[in-house]
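Is this the right way to post structure tokens for a design question? Let me know if I should format differently. Anyway, here goes:
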């Protein structure tokens, strides 16, 4: 018997961007795709109707962490539906900063809004999230290609050192951790000389990873615990029938008691009204050079593998990888057309050459981009929309989700299994994900934010 609800669908995920970006037939060509190691087995499309206790939409880190923990910790039967391939979305394209994050709001802002205890819980959860990635890699023998320990947040203007000092003081006084605030000279002494770095806050809870190897490793671990992953199985419509969810894919329907939506920047928002207009997908673009020789690295004064991000609101992020390549990325751009990608790639390359004059001649071997996702209220959620019942929505992560998506996937699994949540997350995590007013104007809001942030980054 069919429910009266409207059947939503089909893809693309959002009407905001050029649909060519959402071609799930091909992975985005990237350094990670070129070096990603073996593709996990048992990922055939869904070819017939099936029933399962929990269905997960999205085989990125959030979805696979949920599935792995549900199967491993609680023995719950779970299947994952993925429109493209494992890691096709943001997870396989990330820059590989496994860091604290997931929120646009800093600790101070969280404390002002929700109180210091909630800010502390958020801090503990983020710290736990970074440790969880390392723990999962160890437990499931995932070769993360770990390189760069700790994260350097560099002041891109002298005035930003004060901001970093304030953050350091808050973490020390409220959370009991003393992070080093480094001068420009101390940063150089650590083998990180950057034209624009007036000093840096060193955050020890961080390391660099190969994100596609990580997400593929999660997929392998999940399948080893009995999870069925179906690639090339986009959910194109969603119905409710007699207490079951029916997720319709081109090859068959998956019937599930409960559904976890783990798709953040690629959220299929037209599948159900309560998903519409909840996230603002925003572009982030990355390029990677060829491996640099030791003398080339010395010429620029950056010799040690490290993770570096600057204090801009529209931040630049960069890594020196273990094999000597430099990875350089930035937010921005309002169109996902191929022409816009070419323009963005040229713009990013120009910024790279400005910042690293000794590497002006160095060839760029890879450039790619993808969508991160922002929430109106600025923090990640583990939300359960009132309609339809039995749904958990994970994210969005504001551009830093590698660790947090892992942790929230685990928390979602604990919650679904009726287990105690450990560490206890902040209560604000469970708030409903608020809709953007007039969601069709989301790119206009983004354009305005970019304008404001750009001015602030330049002058303050
Ligand atoms: C260029 C770039 C650089 C980044 N760098 C970093 C970084 O260095 N550190 C960091 O912490 N974070 C980084 N991020 C953010 C991080 O990648 C994300 O926060 C994180 O990967 C989100 O994981 P996820 O599992 O929630 O979503 P995703 O990995 O995006 O997975 C969602 C999946 O859902 C699938 N899907 C959507 N709709 C459907 C449907 N209808 N049916 C079936 N499947 C569907 C999509 O195909 C997609 O594969 C970066 C992001 C980008 C784009």
């Amino acid at each position: 018997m069919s429910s009266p609800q409207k059947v939503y669908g089909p893809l693309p995920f959002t009407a905001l961007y050029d649909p060519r970006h959402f071609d799930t037939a091909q992975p985005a060509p990237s350094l990670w795709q070129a070096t990603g190691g073996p593709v996990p087995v048992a990922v055939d499309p869904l070819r017939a109707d099936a029933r399962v206790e929990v269905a997960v939409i999205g085989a990125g880190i959030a979805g696979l962490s949920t599935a792995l923990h549900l199967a491993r910790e609680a023995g719950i039967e779970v299947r994952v539906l993925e429109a493209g391939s494992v890691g096709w979305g943001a997870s396989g394209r990330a820059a590989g900063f496994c860091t604290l994050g997931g929120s646009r709001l800093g600790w101070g802002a969280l404390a002002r809004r929700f109180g210091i205890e909630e800010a502390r819980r958020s801090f503990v959860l983020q710290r736990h999230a970074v440790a969880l990635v390392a723990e999962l890699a160890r437990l499931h023998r995932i070769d993360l290609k770990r390189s760069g320990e700790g994260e350097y947040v560099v002041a891109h203007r002298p005035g930003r050192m004060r901001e970093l000092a304030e953050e350091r003081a808050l973490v020390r006084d409220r959370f009991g951790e003393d992070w080093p605030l480094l001068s420009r000279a101390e940063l150089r002494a650590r083998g990180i000389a950057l034209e624009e770095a007036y000093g840096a806050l060193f955050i020890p809870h961080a390391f660099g990873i190969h994100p596609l190897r990580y997400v593929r490793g999660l997929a392998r671990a999940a399948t080893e615990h009995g999870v069925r992953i179906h690639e090339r199985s986009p959910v194109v419509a969603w119905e409710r029938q007699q207490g079951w969810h029916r997720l319709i894919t081109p090859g068959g329907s998956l019937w599930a008691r409960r559904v976890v939506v783990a798709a953040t920047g690629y959220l299929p928002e037209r599948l159900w009204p309560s998903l519409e207009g909840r996230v603002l997908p925003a572009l982030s673009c990355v390029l990677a050079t060829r491996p640099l020789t030791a003398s080339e690295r010395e010429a620029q004064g950056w010799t040690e593998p490290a993770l570096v991000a600057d204090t801009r609101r529209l931040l630049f992020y960069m890594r020196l990888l273990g094999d000597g390549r430099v990875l350089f990325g930035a937010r921005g751009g309002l169109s996902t057309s191929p022409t816009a990608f070419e323009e963005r790639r040229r713009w990013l390359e120009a910024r790279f050459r400005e910042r690293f004059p000794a590497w002006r001649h160095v060839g760029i071997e890879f450039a790619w981009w993808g969508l991160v996702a922002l929430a109106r209220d600025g923090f990640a959620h583990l939300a359960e929309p009132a309609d339809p019942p039995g749904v958990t929505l994970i994210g969005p992560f504001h551009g830093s989700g590698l660790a947090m998506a892992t942790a929230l996937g685990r928390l979602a699994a604990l919650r679904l299994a009726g287990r105690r949540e450990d560490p206890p997350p902040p209560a604000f995590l469970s708030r409903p994900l608020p809709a953007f007013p007039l969601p069709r104007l989301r790119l206009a809001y983004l354009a305005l934010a970019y304008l404001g942030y750009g001015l602030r980054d330049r002058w303050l």
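Format looks fine. Someone answered above. Worth noting: The first strand starts at residue 50 and ends at 57. The chain has a mean pLDDT of 94.
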